[in-house]
Amino acid sequence: MTFRNRCKVMRSLLAVLVGSAFVVMPAAGAELVLKKGARVAVVGDSITEQKIYSKFIETYLLTAVPQLELKVMQFGWGGETAAGFARRLDNDLAPWKPDVVTTCYGMNDGRYTKYTERIGKSYETPMRRIVEAVKKAGAIVVVGAPGVVDSYTFGRRGGTKPVVYNENLRQLGEIARKIAKDHSMPFADVHGDMMAAMTKAKADHGEKHAVAGGDGVHPGENGQVVMAYSFLKAMGLDGQIGTITVDFAAGKATASDGHKVLSAAKGTVEVASARYPFCFWGDAKAGKGTAGILPYVPFQKDLNRLQLVVRNLPGAKAKVQWGKETRVFAAAELAKGVNLAAEFLDNPFSQAFRKVLDAVARKQQFETRMIKNMITNFRYFRPRDGEDKDLQAAFETVRAKLMATHGKLDEQARAAVQPVRHTLKITPTD
To answer: Tell me, what's the pLDDT at 13?
Structure first.
């Protein structure tokens, strides 16, 4: 079945399913575009094929909003442009029938030189073709701007200056923004978010502090956290992981959906949580790891709020112990609510989160091999003068076998998301 015919079938299904919780309707950036059971495809060039921001996105969706039961697959391809993906969309992406597709092109489309109208047009034309094709199939495209090149490490390569190429990428990002607006699709301002984070981080840590990677193009984990933030925010996620409310005087506690209070007495509360906050690691001053970028991107505020509210404390302050760490807060702060995820980077979820992240990494490694080594090659064997039904049936058998293996890896990633039991100890200090 061609992509055009699949589009017709999907449009017919949509007519029947309008109003169902499983239908994904187009949305502006602030509106949630993820419905229960949705399939999310993460598409892009070698920065996507690094499988870092895509891994962060999938792990967040599995752990922070497990109730949505989302499925994620990444389709990254090193060296690719928007035109390259447009050529493989029908064969590689369409059979998976995604509901939401994130795109991140432009880095290679800009040709590593100064912006020209010709460059803009060669990017815009295939990007519009991608968005239009996916939209016709009934899915949402979260149109992403390209990222940035590093103002120091990219400059060491010679040739085009970083400021010149970042201006090129900015203009391509504005084209992406317009395409999203024209089609009423969400827009992820990856370029703007990364530029803001890079500028602030280098102001604090020095120009040599890499945000867009050692080669100036491929970000490390710090820059990729910003990319994940851009896409997750554009999906309309509200970032509310949960709230644990403690009445200290009464010795009682309650918790929001996804969290269950197991016991509460004398300032000690034991909780079982099925929803995790995103967990960070690494040196705050180092480019490696994820923790160092947090002061420069509002990830915790916008996407990662696990709140502790404590009422009726007898003193003006209290110590809160969560896992191995202890913090002191004013009673007024606790009454208003403190974000545990932001205050305790090393927390009881860290180990469980890492297990999910590793399982997602194994799954996404297989996705790259499956798409690049096998599935994408099917398109080169389609005869021009008619359809070889036996050959197409053989391809579908191979695809089904590969997807069965992929399904097992997906199940393993989901199985890694187990409830975490953790204890909060609240001790008045005066």
So the answer is: 34
- Which residue from 129, 141, 233 is spatially nearest to 184, judged by alpha carbons? 141
- Specify the pairing of strand 305-311 against strand 240-247: parallel
Name all contacts of 316-320 with Cβ < 8 Å and 24+ positions apart: 316/430, 317/428, 317/429, 317/430, 318/248, 318/426, 318/427, 318/428, 318/429, 319/425, 319/426, 319/427, 319/429, 320/424, 320/425, 320/426
Q: Can you say whether residue 77 is alpha, beta or left, with left for phi > 0 and alpha for psi between -120 and 50 degrees?
A: beta
CB-side neighbour CA atoms (13 Å) of 416? 25
User: Smallest Cα–Cα separation from 29: which of 176, 196, 168, 172?
Assistant: 176
Question: What is the pTM for the complete model shown?
Answer: 0.91
| Amino acid 6: pLDDT | 43
Tell me the sheet residues that pair with 72: 40
Amino acid letter, residue 154: F
Residue 157: per-residue pLDDT? 62
Q: How many CA atoms lie within 13 A of 313 on its CB side?
A: 26
pLDDT of residue 386: 65
**Type and span of the H or E element at 9:** helix 3-17
CA dihedral (400, 401, 403, 406) in degrees, to 10, reads 170
For the chain, residues with pLDDT lower than 50 are 1-29
- How many Å apart are CA 165 and CA 9, to the nearest integer? 42
Q: Where are the domains of the chain?
A: 3-239+349-364, 240-345+419-428
In CATH, what number does 3-239+349-364 get? Answer: 3.40.50.1110
Cβ(103)–Cβ(44) under 8 Å?
yes
Alpha helices for 277-349 (secondary structure H): 299-303, 331-336, 340-343
pLDDT the model gives residue 156: 67
Largest Cα separation within the chain, whole Å, is 85
Q: What is the pLDDT of residue 155?
A: 77
What pLDDT is attached to residue 16?
29
pLDDT, one tens digit per residue, over 344-372 is 999 999 999 999 999 999 999 999 999 99
Distance CA 71, CA 65 (A): 12
Q: Please state, in angstroms and rounded to a whole number, the distance separating the CA atoms of residues 354 and 344.
A: 16
Other beta carbons within 10 angstroms of residue 358's beta carbon come to 14
Give dist(CA 7, CA 12) in Å, integer: 9
Q: Rounded to an integer, what is the distance from CA 90 to the centroid of its chain?
A: 24
- 215: its two tokens: 């080669």
